[in-house]
Structures are given as structure tokens and as C-alpha cells.
Specification:
Helix 2 links the parallel strand 2 and strand 3. The longest helix has 23 residues. Helix content is 42%, strand content 15%. The chain is globular, with a radius of gyration of 17 Å.
Amino acid sequence: MNAPQEKPLALVTGAARGIGRAIAERLCKDGFAVAILDREREAGLACAAELSTKGHSAFFEPIDLADHAAIRALVERLPTPAVVVNNAGIFENKPFFELEAEDFTRMMSVNVTALFILSQAAARRMGAGGRIINIASRVFLGARNHAHYVASKAAVVGLTRAMAMELLPQGIMVNAVAPGGVETEMVARQSEEARAALLALQPTGSLAQPADIANAVAFLASPQTQFIYGQVLMVDGGKSLGGGLGF
């Protein structure tokens, strides 16, 4: 399915559920046609159908971020995007001494390399006013039991800054949003003890809602937002201000 041409197109990866879905809905409300990019076909189709029934312009496109050639082909097939939101990623808890090289390879391939490939392919077609927004994480500051995930999100921050410098002459604005703890299905599956430990580290005593992250993305995606390049917007309830660095 092709996006309606009268609306600017936003590509959102991992948009079938959680934070990505909230981002897709918010961008739809802001007047974008949104491509729901996800490997979960049923969830992606359901998300697009629900947004369409609300009068929004949304369509689903299956994508496997481990298939880098497919990413390039998808970008070439779709209309030129005005906004790209690199939201999809993988997460894993694993102590440092249990990590294998393969764990790092898999994590970096999805969380960093795929982000780079999608951004590069889109930026080749984007004109002035384009926006690329990367979803990092506050854990780039450091966290226990998932060093490979921390490293991948630190790489996202570095890549965001490098992309911003190189794409600025084209008029493409590149920034990142770094969430802290967010009420998602992953958090809901945690034990009461794990959830209590997570909340104990939050200055607000509560977690963010997916809409909180979506609102930050919408700010950076808005054509009215100008003169912001290579920044990391922390949406973590003040957790990055100090205190424990556990996740």
C-alpha cells in the first residue's frame, strides 16, 4: 500500500506495539501519513487498521531489521519520507561474564547498523526540512547486566551526533530521544520485585507512558521545530540527574 501523497510521510520502525505505536499515532494526529514498519505482521496490520478507522493515514510494511538489503529496497520503493523514526531495537539481560561475541554482533546489527542503513537510504532522498529521530536510551550512561545493550545505545548517541554534522548542510535535522523506564509490555512482564527495584530508582516514583516518548518525538519531527541538531532529549523523569545507574 502506498502512502497518500498529500501528506508528508513518516517511517516508524517497531511501530506495531508499545512506544513505536504511540509514536505512530501521535504523528498521524500531527498530519503525517505513517508507515508502520515492523516484523510482526498481525500486530502491524492491526495497528494500521486501527489508525485508519480513526481517520488517519497509516499503512503497514513488513521489515526485518536484520535484513539490511531489504531495508534499502523498502526505502527505495516508498515515497520520499519527511521523517524517519528509528525506534525498533532489541534488548537482553545478560551479565558481563556471560556475554559472547555473538551477543554483541546481534545487538549492534539491529540497534545500530540497521538504524544507520535506514537513515542513510532515507537521507539520500530527503530534501531540506527532513527529520531523522533516533530512539536511544538513558542507559547509554551506564547500567548493569546488559553491557551489549548499553554499548549499542551509546553508539546510537554517537551516530546521531555524527549524522547531524554531516547531514546539516542538506537541511536534515538529526536528533535522538533517550527514554528511561517506560510502561510497556516488557516492563509489565517483570516480577513485582523487579518492578519495585525499577521504581525505586525513579525520582518521580513512576514510569513514563509511551505517549510521553511520542510527544518528545513529535516535537523534534515538527516543521516548526528548527535549529536543533545532534541533541539527545532525555525523557526519563529526572533519573539521569543523579542517583543509581541501574536499569
